[in-house]
Amino acid sequence: MYTIFSEEGRVAIVLSLEEGRNPSPKPSLDSLLALTGDDLDQVNQAILRRMESRVDLIPKLAGHIIAGGGKRIRPMLTLAATKLCGYAGQRHILLAACVEFIHTATLLHDDVVDESDLRRGNATANVLWGNEASVLVGDFLISRAFQIMVEDGSLEILRILANASAVIAEGEVLQLLTANDTATSEDTYMEVITAKTAALFSAACRIGAVVADRPKAEAEALDSFGRNLGIAFQLVDDALDYSARQATLGKSIGDDFKEGKITLPVVLAYRRGDATERAFWERTLARLEQVPEDLATALSLMERHGTLRDTIERARHYGAIARDALAFFPPGPVADALSETIDFCIHRAY
Predict the structure, then answer these.
(1) CA distance 218 to 293
(2) Distance, CA of 196 to CA of 258 (rounded, Å)
(3) Which of 70, 88, 121, 249 is deepest in the core (most CB within 10 A)?
(4) Residue 208 belongs to a domain with what CATH number?
(5) Residue 49: which residues within 8 A CB-CB, separation 6 or more?
(6) The predicted structure's pLDDT at residue 115
């Protein structure tokens, strides 16, 4: 069910994802955090140490975005994956920090490319310190991440995380090339999100098996879990841009629309629309000729063609694949927490 409402001049869609089902507790990351909390405290301390620099702006700018309210889901996945594989050492702490540095660097670069003003309700680093500083501090964090990889000494972990970094960059460039292109196919869109989001999820999980010196089959299972979880995560993110309130995600409704980003809700609406509707998408997204009421029209078209509902259903599909990957491991609190993480990523903000 869709409900369109107006709030202080904004228009949004509320998705009822559980219509017809019995009420159940809302999924959360509480179980994952309870299992990884002590290690995560050490990760946060390592992040603070590794951000230090004789150039004062670097820790100030990096600290601004790292402390900006993120859930640390990627490093938590690394910590949980090592627990799932029975690892009892300390290498996972710095490697989880490494994963967070890579993620943070991509956020800094993304905000510059997207000319974003807000992230999680706070002013972006590029607004506060400028584009040049944001890009260079992002580069610094990537360099710190590679220093950590070298210190760890595992060529396999270096290969996994270096490959993920390269794939993320490829995904961002591909997204840039498809921006404002209403002819973008669903396959191309999936290629973008698999690269720019799912690659780091899968790497964050896979290195847990490598650190624990587990068989290749376990590494592949964790890779599959992370990759499919990451795809589901991004699909929901792209649906939420047309449905969540700014207070929930720290962004205003329809930011992707205003920037002309071609995400799955748009791809489906364009494919399913008639000539008049396609002309609307070409004017508003390809040429960025927008008037204030266009967002309401876009939401109405998405409702008409069920594109947000279908985007969420695709996320459920990839979430189910991620859950199947967990079946490779013995049941227990860690597997249960990771399974709930899938539910959280799909149901968050509703």
Answers:
(1) 51
(2) 21
(3) 249
(4) 1.10.600.10
(5) none
(6) 74
pLDDT of residue 6 exceeding 60, the answer is no
The answer to whether 4 touches 16, Cβ cutoff 8 Å, is no
pLDDT tens readout for residues 68-82:
767 899 999 999 999
Token pair for residue 159? 């290969």
Place of tokens 């400028």: 130
* Burial of residue 204 (number of CB atoms within 10 Å: 0-12, 13-18, 19+): buried
For the chain, how far is it from start to end, CA to CA, in angstroms?
13
Cβ atoms of residues 161 and 149 within 8 Å: yes
Amino acid (1-letter code) at residue 3: T
Q: Which two tokens stand for residue 248?
A: 């929930």
Instruction: Give the containing element (helix H, strand E) for 248.
Output: helix 246-249
Tokens of 197: 């989001």
- For residues 39 and 268, is the Cβ–Cβ distance under 8 A? no
Q: How far apart are CA 16 and CA 305, in angstroms?
A: 16
Collapsing DSSP to helix, strand or coil, 180 comes out as: coil
Domain boundaries, position 330: 2-347
Number of domains in the chain: 1
d(CA 126, CA 105): 12
Q: For residue 231, give both structure tokens.
A: 């795809």
Beta strands in 117-250 (DSSP E): 118-119, 122-123
